């Protein structure tokens, strides 16, 4: 897989912000849960992210609810905590103002271009989701001393 940072982060979000599983039964892979989530897991595995769920422990989640049109999961990592969100393009974009480019640089979000691309994909009958991430780096707690 080419090292496209935005693609890798999308695969991570799709894998971690996910309540389904893939299990092998009688030599065939079976989705346990939602088929769209199963496709996200398969894509991440094909992208080489097979050990990520073990590395990023889920500590909390907000399940998908149709009135909100997104789900969110919070994960503990080696460097801190990461929140991943997956949902309807318009909902995720309404809460975002930055994006990652192909090399991993944070750039201003061009919501109009994203909406146009999502509309083109939806017009072809494709299921379109958006992903977002927020990092909370681990901080050192100030030690309290008494004298």
Measured on Cα atoms, how large is the radius of gyration?
Answer: 17 Å
Query: Could you name the ranges where pLDDT drops below 50 across 5 or more consecutive residues?
Result: none
Structural class: alpha+beta
CATH topology: Calcium-transporting ATPase, cytoplasmic domain N
For the record, what CATH class applies?
A: Alpha Beta
Question: What do we call the CATH homologous superfamily?
Answer: Calcium-transporting ATPase, cytoplasmic domain N
Mean pLDDT, nearest integer? 92
* Beta-strand fraction estimate: 25-35%
Measured distance between first and last alpha carbons: 57 Å
What's the CATH architecture? Answer: 3-Layer(aba) Sandwich
Query: Tally the helices: what do you get?
Result: 5
- General form: globular
Taking the sheet with the most strands, its summary is: 4 strands, antiparallel
Q: In total, how many beta strands?
A: 8
Tell me the domain tally.
1
Order of helices and strands: HEEHHEEEHEEHE
Helix share of residues?
Answer: 25-40%
Arrangement of strands in the largest sheet: 3-4-5-8
